[in-house]
Design brief:
Layout lengths: L1 H40 L1 H11 L2 H12 L1 H28 L3 H5 L3 H64 L1 H39 L4 H12 L7 H13 L3 H32 L3 H15 L3 H24 L6
Helix pairs in contact: 1-6, 2-3, 3-6, 4-6, 7-8, 7-10, 7-12, 8-9, 9-10, 11-12
Length: 333
């Protein structure tokens, strides 16, 4: 009896600790989980790099850098924006004569009522942008760290438990079907997403070069990187380029860039190319692929690019597992 009561007490304590831990880690939990998922998907790449460099730490670092180069460039861009916002804050402070010494002086209340409220209203947009950029940068850093250690820990875990896992999978075919379907769907959808962005980069670079834009292929590469980002997308590059060409007097070229971007760099790549590439590898219905790539970023932001395909993969795995139970039909090799 005492043993049961002690077990209940430990269960309650465990639930409280788990709730507290999840609540504390929740601001960065999405970044942590996303990094671990990507390390699992990209593990074959890590394995090939490790065959060359042997050491786990070096291989994990190089694989992380290669796979996440667009994110690194994005962090640099965010850092640039943070610096710009910081300069804007300083300029506003300087131009308005706002000083900390005035706030801590004996007449701080009077000065605050006189003019500081208006000054703070001008500062708030810049401070908000500065804070948002800092939070995103921190999340991306946690994402990179989670991916790095995900490669290392997964490598060690596979070395110790691969044989046991294979035996368990052989005993329970349904579990194998579920996990295999999840792995194929998730890998296929993300593979299609990244490959589509590379196609966008090439198409954009060629189009910019034909119009005569300087540094066309560098701008094409940036277009491909931005096409990875939800909501933002490739239009963040080709629309300003087109408008700038129009401003310089090259109206047909500018309009042509914008029309080409809308049709081929957004509509065609989102609705056709990305869906076709993902379906070819994952064998998921096009509607689910589109919903996964749209709903994930809407709900979770940037990391929704991973959570959207993960949700679709879980549904696909559950469906394949149920089909095996009820009909004995297997859809995975």
């Amino acid at each position: 009896m005492k043993k049961m009561e002690r077990g209940r007490e430990l269960l309650v304590i465990g639930i409280i600790i788990l709730f507290f831990s999840l609540y504390t880690l929740s601001p960065l939990l999405d970044s942590l989980v996303a990094g671990l998922i990507v390390s699992y998907i990209a593990y074959p790449v890590f394995s090939r790099v490790r065959k060359i460099f042997k050491r786990e730490s070096i291989s994990a670092f190089l694989t992380t850098v290669v796979l996440i180069l667009p994110v690194i460039l994005m962090v640099m861009y965010l850092a640039y924006l943070v610096i710009i916002e910081f300069k804007s804050v300083r300029e506003v402070v300087t131009s308005q004569g706002f000083s900390i010494s005035a706030l801590v002086s004996p007449h701080a209340g009077q000065s605050f009522g006189g003019y500081s409220l208006n000054q703070l209203n001008q500062l708030l947009p810049h401070i908000s942008s500065l804070s948002a950029g800092t939070v995103v940068a921190i999340k991306l850093i946690v994402f990179l760290i989670a991916m790095y250690y995900g490669f290392i820990e997964l490598s060690r875990w596979k070395e110790q438990h691969t044989d046991k896992v294979k035996m368990k999978m052989a005993e329970n075919r349904a579990v194998y079907i579920f996990l295999k379907s999840l792995d194929t769907t998730l890998s296929g959808m993300l593979f299609g997403y990244v490959l589509t962005s590379l196609i966008v980069a090439v198409m954009a670079g060629i189009a910019y070069a034909l119009v005569g834009i300087q540094n066309a292929f560098i701008l094409g590469f940036l277009t491909g990187i931005f096409s990875l980002l939800p909501v933002v997308g490739a239009w963040m590059v080709y629309v300003p380029l087109g408008l700038f060409e129009i401003y310089k007097g090259f109206v047909p070229e500018g309009i042509g860039i914008i029309i080409f971007g809308i049709i081929f760099l957004n509509v065609v790549q989102d609705v056709y190319i990305r869906v076709k590439l993902s379906k070819k590898v994952s064998d998921v219905h096009p509607i689910l692929i589109i919903i996964g790539f749209i709903a994930g970023p809407i709900k979770f932001g940037v990391f929704g690019l991973i959570y959207g395909p993960l949700a679709v993969g879980l549904l696909k795995g559950l469906f394949d597992c149920a089909r095996y139970y009820y009909s004995g039909e297997e859809t995975v090799a």
